[in-house]
Amino acid sequence: MKNILTIDLEEWFHANYHDDVFDNQKSYAVRIIQNTERLLTLFDQYKAQATFFVLGYVAEKHPQLIRNIAAAGHEIASHGYAHQLIYKQTPSEFKKDVSQAKQRVEDIIGTSVKGYRAPSWSITPKSLWAWEILQDLGFVYDASVFPIETYLYGLPTAPRFPYHPKYNGKILKLLEVPSSTVRVLNKNIPFAGGFYFRALPYPVIAQCIKTVNKEGQPAIVYLHPREIDPNQPRLTLSTKENLIHYYGINGCEKKLVHVLKEFEFTSIEKYYGL
């Protein structure tokens, strides 16, 4: 069966570990163009289609890059504008950020944007109100929930597979597409993207994808362009944050190629016929 491939299209310096992680950087070197072009080459080589969750900041600075992604047959979705955690915004701030980002991207590609993913999976128990705003803004689906619990994000009570969330006593039309996990000892274990993808051995990742597929569901793999770029500038981070952000960078592209060779991938929009 086909699985789902997603890219959070953001620069090397976009992170949510502490408030001044961006402001303290002295160099804003552009790395996203070359990294994304490399991803597009790989996806074309292995006949993979993906959903690109585009940060409004990136779309504004590099509109032709967004057009190139769309022209290659990939889905364009939204990652918000300024890469801010939802639960650190008010509802009105969040609505302004996402509305601005959606409009920017739609103006560039000339079609409506159906999907949204929050920076750092930041729909948590503190920000469930975001679902209603996303629906009101015309989004068809959200992909911001990670059904685990970490110090930064997570909604551990969420279903593992797509569902229509309930808020204020109403079941919403918005489809929630949570990040993939496998069940081990009655716990949800992540494997399919970011730090988890970089840290786990490839045979473990492949087996986890197959396990999800045996449950009749696609695995959702997610990466950031910076994760195939060992030569990127480095953020000033704590020991823990540095580990999360950079561990396994050197071998990530090779691991991605293994996944593309072994599994078929499509976008969220095409898989669910949205």
Structural class: alpha/beta
Q: Bin the strand percentage.
A: 5-15%
- Distinct helical segment count: 10
Shape: globular
| Mean pLDDT over the full residue set | 92
Largest sheet: 5 strands, parallel
Helical residues, percent = 25-40%
Number of strands: 12
Please write the string of helix (H) and strand (E) elements: EHEHHEHEHEEEEEEHHEHHEH
Low-confidence residue ranges:
none
End-to-end Cα distance, whole Å, is 18 Å
Question: Can you give a write-up of this model?
Answer:
This protein has 274 residues and is an alpha/beta fold. Helices cover 37% and strands 14% of the residues. The protein has ten helices and twelve strands. The chain has helices spanning 32-45, 56-61, 63-71, 91-109, 130-136, 194-199, 202-214, 239-246, 249-262, 268-272; strands at residues 3-9, 51-54, 75-78, 115-116, 141-142, 166-167, 170-171, 175-176, 181-184, 187-190, 220-223, 265-266. Strands 1, 2, 3, 11 and 12 form a five-stranded parallel beta sheet that branches. A three-stranded parallel beta sheet has the order 4-5-8, with helices on one face. It has a two-stranded antiparallel ribbon with strand order 6-7. A hairpin with a 2-residue loop joins strand 9 and strand 10 (187-190). The mean pLDDT is 92.
